[in-house]
Amino acid sequence: MNTHNIREILNYRRKPQHSYFVVAIDYGRKGLEAVVDPEITRREVVARLRSGEYQNVAFIHHVEGGLVEDVTDELLEEAGAEDKIIVDSAFARSQACEQFDALLRDCFKRG
After folding, report:
1. How far apart are CA 96 and CA 6, in angstroms?
2. N or C: which end of the chain has fewer CB within 10 A?
3. C-alpha Rg value of the chain to the nearest Å
4. How far apart are CA 103 and CA 95, in angstroms?
5. Would you state the pLDDT for residue 71?
6. What is the pLDDT of residues 15-24, one digit of tens each?
7. In the chain, which residues have pLDDT < 50?
8. What is the rounded CA–CA span in Å between residue 85 and residue 74?
9. What is the CA angle 35-41-47, rounded to 5?
10. Which distant-in-sequence residues (6+ apart) come within 8 Å of 92 by Cβ?
11. pTM of the complete model
């Protein structure tokens, strides 16, 4: 291991690792709304799904340290709210996810 790799590892550890959930609500022709609250936990997302506060969910992403994971099915199943998802075709949901991921990448590039 050379010193360059060690510096990269140390710099990576110094950066704050933010973790948050993005819940995309589908309003049909009006488009998508991304609900992003850095304070909300996984448990709270599940509770909001269960209560019906989040309806017509297009997708749910968990963002941690710049990595994005699609946790839609997992959280909807946990909440017992599979019927609350409106974008039920895999193709339509993947399109929405790709558009959001592109937007997220642009935001990271701009800093």
Report:
1. 38
2. C
3. 16
4. 13
5. 92
6. 566 789 999 9
7. 1, 86-87, 89
8. 12
9. 80
10. none
11. 0.63
